[in-house]
Specification:
Length: about 100
């Protein structure tokens, strides 16, 4: 039960974050620039997050989706820690926990 819930929470989380980043509001783009990335990086990140959500949703590609999601989250964690932008740590920690739960089965 926890495993299935973690999978669907990840799908929703990555899809929602992906849409938010892909839309690329000025605030989102400013964050990416502040972290040293080009403005369009939010669109690329959003696209990868949406791809990860789709891959996780499909049982046949779930492991690949979890791996992609883990890479995305790891890069985000390293970025926000390096820039001491600790307001993003809690949401990222939730993704880490859900990926760990989803990958245990």
């Amino acid at each position: 039960m926890v495993h299935a819930l973690s999978i669907w929470l990840l799908v929703a989380g990555f899809f929602g974050a992906g849409l938010f980043n892909a839309i690329g509001t000025p605030g989102t783009q400013s964050d990416f620039v502040r972290w040293g990335y080009p403005r369009w990086w939010s669109i690329l990140t959003g696209g990868l997050e949406i791809v990860s959500a789709v891959l996780i949703a499909l049982p046949v590609s779930r492991i690949v989706g979890l791996a992609l999601g883990a890479v995305i989250v790891a890069a985000a964690v390293l970025t926000v820690l390096r820039h001491r932008d600790f307001s993003h740590v809690v949401p990222l920690s939730v993704f880490v926990a859900l990926i760990a739960l989803a990958g245990t089965s």
